[in-house]
Amino acid sequence: MTQKMPGLQIAIGPRVRKSPYFDATLRWGAKAFTIYNHMYMPTVYTDPVSEYWSLVKDVTLWDVASERQVEIGGPDALEFVQRLTPRDMSKCRVGQCQYMVLTAEDGGIINDAVLLRLAEDRFWISPGDGDVLLWAGGVAVNSGLQVSVFEPDVSPLQLQGPKAPEVASALFGDWVWDLRYYWLRETTLDGIPLVLARTGWSGELGFELYLQDRHRGDELWERVMAAGKAFDIAPIAPSTIRSVEGGLLSYVSDIRRSDNPYVLGMERLVDLDKAVDFIGKEALRKIRDEGAARRLVGVEMEGELKGGSNDRFWKVYSNDRPVGHVTRLVRSPRLEKNIGFASVPAELSDIGTALTVETNDGRRPLTVCEFPWFPRLTEFAQPE
Which of 167, 181, 246, 358 registers the highest number of CB atoms within 10 A of its CB? Predict the structure, then answer.
């Protein structure tokens, strides 16, 4: 979420990459940008609350080309992917997507990502903010496997919100209603090569449009906006509010290099019995047996939340003793209360545990609670 800091600006220059949609986002009112994965990404068009309501009531379009894809190809592509992650990806079928974490030798998380399987020997890793391309390339060097690792010409857009299926249907046809959650299909739109996937980071119904020709980015953006006009489409930035409500974690904020899947409640992504000796296997086995020292928990905070969200990792206290930090904290317009996540010792992670947090305006009571506050929406009914 964009913070108002008078006098501060972000410099736009050739050193940082621009997405294929950069000019379009300026035309459609982008007011601020961040640098995400070495690329400019819009952070606000109108204001975060207005954009939130567009997302949960209508349909929205996001420039997320900064989800720079990593392509894994070659005869040993599957075995290589299996080495990168503790999840058993042999179960991922062609045309399917799977959420995954990439782990280091100590079990810490290099990044989280969505894996797209386009062919038996061709995968895309769609990561959060971080140099996954360099990591995967380094692992490949001495792997002894026949595999290629490179960044393809792929630039995602997210089409998200309850009316997203109607817009997608207007663009591609009625077949989109049959596309299952976390599945994909290669297609074209007016000759523009795309992969359409039933994925997204909104907690709402949605799709990701993976453009495979960066020279047609402006054309694709305008085509989607034109199709969405009848459905009150709005360009927005990724919604911090809705992602927190839905329990969707953000790399670097909620997920850090020092975290492991057991800290984050992601045990389901760890298969210690899979045959492949993936990176971090023994470390994760030890963590499972001994228990994680810390936990990421849901929290609710009393009092006023100034500025819309926390602008840094706020310190968390137990009996005046610093014990952790808040990762992200937002004001939920639907719940009319402050919600977020905090990293705390495992012994302080029980629901109902009372803590305090140091905000920009003094200390506030903080209570550990269940999350997500709103479940992710995954299935839609085809219209009659």
Answer: 167
Return all residues near 206 (Cβ < 8 A) that are at least 6 apart.
158, 159, 160, 161, 164, 198, 199, 200
Name the helix (H) or strand (E) containing 139: helix 132-141
CATH 3.30.70.1400 fits 70-150, yes or no: yes
Tokens of 279: 């990176």
Radius of gyration of the chain (CA): 21
How many residues make up the chain in this entry? Answer: 384
Q: How far is CA 133 from CA 53, 67, 69, 147, in A?
A: 35, 11, 8, 14
Could you tell me the end-to-end alpha-carbon distance of the chain, in angstroms, rounded to an integer? 38
Q: What is the pLDDT of residues 17-52, one digit of tens each?
A: 999 999 999 999 999 999 999 999 999 999 999 999
pTM equals 0.95
* Contact between residue 151 and residue 46 where contact means Cβ atoms under 8 Å apart: no
- Looking at CATH, the fold of the domain delimited by 22-68+153-243 is given as Gyrase A; domain 2 (3.30.1360)
Whole-Å CA distances, 280 to 81, 128, 286, 368: 14, 20, 10, 30
Name which of 132, 88, 125, 126 is nearest 110 in CA terms: 132
The kind and range of the H/E element at 22 are helix 22-27
Which of 222, 217, 265, 249 lies closest to 341, judged by CA? 249
